[in-house]
Amino acid sequence: MKKITYAILGASVLLVVLVAMILLMPGPAKTQVSIGYRDHIGYLPYYVAMEKGYFSEQGLEINPVVFANTNQMISAVASNNVQATIGGANLQTVYGAEEKSPGSLKVFGTLEASKGSMFNCIMVKKDSAINDISELKGKKVGAQPGSFPPLYIDATLNTVGLTKSDIEIIELDPSLQLSALESGQIDALVAIEPVCTFGVNKGSAEIIYNDPIANLAVTFASSVLNADFANKNPETAAKIVKATDKAIDFIRQNPQESLDIAAKYANYDPALMKGMKTPLFSKSTEIKAENMQELADKLYSSGLMKTRVDAKNVMYKG
What we know:
By secondary structure, the chain is α/β, with parallel strands linked by helices. 43% of the residues lie in helices and 20% in strands.
């Protein structure tokens, strides 16, 4: 009887040891990927995917890399120093990189504008005498630095019979834009969120026009993969895309929680975000080549690009 008891006891101890060893064994190693982003609402799918663990679900370990500007970020993706950027890289920069190095980038998600989305706006100082964009002739108008804002500013002014030559465009870093408007350094401001909502909630500015960028093109920004990385690591690339698509679904279903996540990751003051709308993102399966081509053609016709990019060649095909 004692022998049987000792045998059972020994077997039990062995079982416990085996279970403990299994529990202590490390899980499968996660695939490390570097992803670039910027501190603004256009990178909301990245923030959500990080916060909700969607990358981790796919077996990915993310090395986040923040960039001060889009040119640096897209150059890093094109050279594979980071493998992707998720959310709001403007397509002018993406197409410019593609022009210099054909086949270096793949777009796997886009950002759209409509008259109701309020991703960007034209605003004036509170109680300004300017109430309509037709009254901007001869005025100083602040805008993001770069060659892209003048394009959609011109397209918007064209709707009321004006052109960008009828105004003076003052390039301003986003951190300086509201103070320049409040001080009277500029008469109006063409801004990108969160500046629009911040100005309204501070009580220092009011919006006179929503989404001027929509007058230039419906699709204007994107999520991008390094093409060589995607070709050599198709499974990993597909996992990045899948996590991003899931984040976009979450944003659509949970707009307020998504904005709360943006406040956390982009260091926004939640009190200044009241009334902000989530941007309009398209998933990898929803990208419209004709909308991407629309902007490529306008960049070419404007002279900002020397060659015409075929948008279909830039689209990711998983």
